[in-house]
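Q: Could you fold this chain for me?
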Amino acid sequence: MNFLPTALPEVILIEPRVFEDQRGFFMETYHQAKFRQGGITAEFVQDNHSGSQRGILRGLHYQVRQPQGKLVRAVAGRVFDVAVDIRRGSPTFGKWVGVELSAQNKRQLWIPKGFAHGFYVLSEWAEIVYKATNLYAPEWDRSIRWNDPEIGIVWPLLDGQPPLLSEKDAHAPLLREAEVFSFPV
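A: Sure. Below is the predicted structure, expressed as structure tokens.
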């Protein structure tokens, strides 16, 4: 596995080693010792799987208590996956990084605690699976507006059309109004 740095030092892009032949492929998606060598020492307690249609944007999500680190990958289709540093006092507070995750490129993105997460579906259908370091706690679930101008995420919107959002995400606060973390988390 290759562990590649991103513009946000704590967010890591993982490229697995893929073994392919006429039958198909095999790859490790998680190996504790290799991840530790790559700088990811988190322990995972929950796996999640979501499916979404083209043009859906989910996020920017986080839990203000019981924060979750997430190891995200696409198992079907393509998404533009984003992490935003929401640790007030961090040198990269309010900065973001985005990468394309797809069933084809088999990449994964490590998003540690203290970061908001979101993704936009580029293909007709996409399925995302992710490991989380803490259990889902709906009472601590929070969102930040996907198009906050202070964050300035450059989403690759299809045909320039606005994304399809949940009611919660459509009315999410801006970062300056949101309940966030103090650095470090």
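A (continued): The chain is about 5% helix and 45% strand.
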